[in-house]
Amino acid sequence: MALVVNRPKLSLAERCYLPSLLAGLAITWKHLKRAIFNKGIVTMQYPEEKWDANMPDWYRGAPTLVVDENGREKCVSCQLCEFICPPRAITIKPMEIPENDKWRKVEKRPEEFDIDMARCIYCGLCEEVCPEEAIFLRKDYSITGLNRAEMVHDKKTLYKLGGVMKGLVFKWNELK
Amino acid sequence: MDTSLIIHFLTIPWVFLLWTTALKSFIFLNIVIIVVSVTVFAERKVSAFIQDRIGPNRVGIPLTLLGAKKDSFFWGLGQMVADPIKLLTKENFVPAGVNKFYFWLAPKLVMIPPILILAVLPFGSTLFGISMTICSLNIGILYIFAIASLSVYGITLAGWASNSKFPFIGGIRSSSQMISYELSLGLSIVPVFMICGSLNLNEIVDWQVTNGWLISPYWPKGLSVASLLHPSDVIHALIAGISIQRLLLWFPLLVSFIIFTVSIFAETNRLPFDLPEAEQELVGGYHTEYASMNFALFFLGEYAAMFAGSGAIVSIFLGGWSLPFIPDGSHGFLWGLVNILAFFAKVSLLLLFFIWVRWTLPRFRYDQLMKLGWLGFFPIALGNIFVTAVILALVHH
Q1: What is the pTM of this model?
Q2: I need a labelling partner for B118 at 20 to 30 A (CA). Which of A69, A129, B132, B167 fits?
Q3: A29, A41, A45 ranked by CB distance to B52: nearest
Q4: Apex CA A30: angle with CA B343 and CA B357, to 5°?
Q5: What does the pLDDT look like over B184-200, one tens digit per residue?
Q6: Region of B269 on the Ramachandran plot (φ > 0 left; ψ -120 to 50 alpha; else beta)
Q7: Tell me: the pLDDT tens digits for B291-325?
Q8: Given this model, what pLDDT does residue A121 score?
Q9: Of A21, A24, A35, which is closest to B49 when you measure between CB atoms?
Q10: B contacts of A21 (beta carbons < 8 Å)
Q11: Domains of chain A
């Protein structure tokens, strides 16, 4: 049996719009009055007020390089992140670790490590692909610059943003 | 040159008329442009408040650049200056394939009619004995209708000359909408002529000064600040104000007022009648293809039309420049200023109402719009004329 949906019978007041218009105006007036006295406003004024405290742990912000507890830079410049990076934002120039260095046995470290933040898409593939747990996406999201050159994060900036990461696998210990 | 000679020259009647009119026009036009830019700011601010937001509050004076500790924001009032600067300095992009002549002509055709309407609005009583109407026209309201219907050309031409589908639909909608609502606009005002017996806006306002605003059913005649001291005068005025004819006329006048106001909304393309520019359906409607100052002219035109429409509503129904107990400009130049302020205050309140309505009501569907205009307002306005005629003919007291 076919289902019959009856059209609601509208009363004259409903058909001539005016009562519902007035009801609507009353509602917006209430909001206007409340907002004028600075109550009930939901806007967060961005640079002054931030949502940082409520940011989830898995938030993917700017990629950064980290050092471990011993002060060794974790990156061994295998360049896997450079090759997987979809927008090709990462450029690494590897170098050999000098003979007299404490971490000579690691053999390689980056001489230059540039991430072009104008290209970075914050996908996190670099973090995922890194075999040394050296690159992490941290919570910095407000990356700004006045020109393209300023948008490139060099090695120094990346380590400054990354800082020390504790509790990672200590791969290059005394035994190895 | 001798100063007395200059004064003598300036007081020759036609020269006097010329320079006072030019001065009045200049000042009134500038005030209106300022009011328009304030209205644009108020629109953004009120819409923000209604939606529980803050609205523009950043543009101010960058005092930190000059060495101060904090910037001064002034509640974002700098936005009123920043908006025109932005629009003036943007590239005036003209797409390929438009009909260049009409494309450039259309924004001017939208801007000019509302400004022409300002000429007949009595924005004050008198100042130093000079009437505060730029042009006291005997066919004032007919002039308003004639000029207001010209603004449809601008919008339709803009839609057509843009050579693009969305502006075209917007232009077509606009023409049908404005023509439909002009009908009820014109008819709704006929009861006012029958009561006031004049088409001159000055005379309509003068009638309201003596007999009370047209939307009020009761008006204590001759009550002034001076008579408040004498209780007998007050009682006399209160009794003299009661008139059965006036009470009966209140109903048709209220209907006239509602139809006229709603039609003004439709004429100025304001929500809930903003079908010509319906953002959600037509991108930007008739001004989709316009940029920078050409677009700003449409914008200014819309808000100037709002001002002109509000001015017409105030002059016809809300007593124009008059306020109860406030004498007109012939009692001193301060009262003349108060009258001018009263007019602008009333218009501002109406503009606020325009904005308030815009952020409350959803847009009409096209068929609903036509139905409301042709099956709702048109017959009601027509019937209203007969009701008024019957009341005027049968009830004399």
Answers
A1: 0.80
A2: B167
A3: A41
A4: 50
A5: 888 888 888 888 888 88
A6: left
A7: 888 888 888 888 888 898 898 899 888 888 887 77
A8: 92
A9: A35
A10: 360-361
A11: 60-162 (3.30.70.3270)
